[in-house]
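Sequence in, structure out.
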Amino acid sequence: MPSLSFALETHPGRKRPKNEDAVGHALTSWGGVFVVADGMGGHRTGEVAARLAVEAILESLKEAEPSPKALLEAFERANALIYAEAQRPENRGMGTTATCLLLDLPYALIAHVGDSRAYLLRGEEFTLLTEDHSWVAERVRQGLLSPEEARTHRWRNVITNALGSFPQARVDLLGLKLFPEDTFLLCSDGLSGVLEDRTLKEVLKNFPPEEAARRLVELANEWGGPDNVSAVVVRLPKELPQGQRPYALPLEAAQGSPVRLKLGEEPEELPTQVLEPPKRPRVSWRDALLILLWIVVVAYILLGYFRP
């Protein structure tokens, strides 16, 4: 398995007394798992929720056979743990965002809850892979706010979906085939809410992962550091293993485009099967009689037309 180049950085920022972000990773025989989480609910509960999410997701996935189902089950397990803790009076309001990159080379699967993000740098193209689960992001998608207005809106920190908030997790799943030297960035909103996409792209493009992650965190703090800030940068090697996976991805994902996945749906890429020759349609006696009568009528008309 070719070695990955990666780095993880997290910092409390300049305005928060404590770091409620958490990051983690686990390398595996098929690639690796990388997670970033941003806790909420108070100094203690936010920190605990983020840590529980990262630990539960990594523990579930590092030994499991990689698949969209395994990734979803890891998030469901994390949600159940955090939700149970949140039922205690002292932990009321506990929850956390979570964004996970599962590398099953040469494929990637991404699970996402909240407003932490996953980006992909491929050549010159820099793409936001996830959709924020936040009040302002939903208004932007509805056309009621511009991205610039959302960035400074007073409700920009209001999350509409988080692990631990509900008994059942609502998780976005994505999948795509990887290209050599693809670079991923996972980050909390303490980074994406401060730095513009063009800045993120330039840093990822011009520096190796370890220096890129460090520079991104430093830049966020230079621009005020209003929140905890975390960055996970993962760069793929120049050569990737080839092969198919037991789980089916939609055709676009298998060609390299990120595609949203929904478990239980039929894949667009169906297995090859032997095609049987088409069977001849069976004609009833009534249909045969009608056809015969039609031939007789046409023949009678033609006979009268050509008779001298």
